[in-house]
Amino acid sequence: MTVSLFDQFMSPTYLGIPLLALALTLPWVLYPSPSARWLNNRLLTLQGWFINRFTQQILTPLSLGGHKWALILTSLMIFLITLNILGLLPYTFTPTTQLSLNLGLAVPLWLATVLIGLRNQPTAALGHLLPEGTPTPLIPVLIIIETISLFIRPLALGVRLTANLTAGHLLMQLTSTAAFVLLSMMPTVAILTTILLFLLTLLEVAVAMIQAYVFVLLLSLYLQENV
């Protein structure tokens, strides 16, 4: 039973070839390309409105130097939301439940923000490792603690996204299994469990969008510290 629960998180293969690359490419095919017409259809209008609103929301606390990251952050947000929501469909695979993929997204972007800070304002970037007014005996300890907390940031980004999506998928599978097993023994309880599963699915859709937003928001905050 334990093995079957976690089988859904294994990367699917076909003829020994991992299909993870195909799963990562699919979200970009689903979105229509903007046209040169004066008036777009409703889908393109809604897509443009969402991108504009999100870009304004993310770039509001950033200085002008951080506005260069608008394309990267917005694309990452749409990419993560699409992967997370597609993973809630039956018989699908969620790439963002793989810690390796999430760390592959988090580590390079976090490292880029740190390198930008060291290049643009090295004194201020290194000053974050030692708060002002620290007693002399505590200076070595605080430098070590702040350095560790700095390197934990990308790990926290990846683990947060992986853990929330994995927990939600496991909870949905356990609830659906319970509803199926109880259907023949206690139909009333099975119906209540199915209602709970429906509400849990709605919650997971919200979690899929919120976790993608939190991932990008934290990256923008790290960028703000170094710009």
Automatic annotation (TrEMBL):
| Listed GO MF terms | proton-transporting ATP synthase activity, rotational mechanism
Which UniProt key words apply to this protein? ATP synthesis, CF(0), Hydrogen ion transport, Ion transport, Membrane, Mitochondrion, Mitochondrion inner membrane, Transmembrane, Transmembrane helix, Transport
- May I ask which residue range the UniProt record assigns to the signal sequence? none
Q: Where are the transmembrane segments?
A: 12-31, 69-89, 101-118, 138-156, 177-199, 205-223
- Entry keyword Phosphoprotein: no
Compartments in which it is found:
Mitochondrion inner membrane
Membrane topology recorded in Swiss-Prot or TrEMBL: Multi-pass membrane protein
Q: Name one GO cellular component term.
A: mitochondrial inner membrane
Xref: Pfam families? ATP-synt_A (PF00119)
- PROSITE patterns tied to this protein: ATPASE_A (PS00449)
Which superkingdom? Eukaryota
Q: Which Gene3D superfamilies match?
A: ATP synthase, F0 complex, subunit A
- Entries under InterPro entries matching the protein: ATP_synth_F0_asu, ATP_synth_F0_asu_AS, ATP_synth_F0_asu_bact/mt, F0_ATP_A_sf
Catalytic activity, reaction form? H(+)(in) = H(+)(out)
The family note in this entry says: Belongs to the ATPase A chain family.
Per UniProt, subunit arrangement is: Component of the ATP synthase complex composed at least of ATP5F1A/subunit alpha, ATP5F1B/subunit beta, ATP5MC1/subunit c (homooctomer), MT-ATP6/subunit a, MT-ATP8/subunit 8, ATP5ME/subunit e, ATP5MF/subunit f, ATP5MG/subunit g, ATP5MK/subunit k, ATP5MJ/subunit j, ATP5F1C/subunit gamma, ATP5F1D/subunit delta, ATP5F1E/subunit epsilon, ATP5PF/subunit F6, ATP5PB/subunit b, ATP5PD/subunit d, ATP5PO/subunit OSCP.
Q: What is this protein called?
A: ATP synthase subunit a
Q: Which organism is it from?
A: Sciaenops ocellatus
Which gene holds the coding sequence for this protein? ATP6
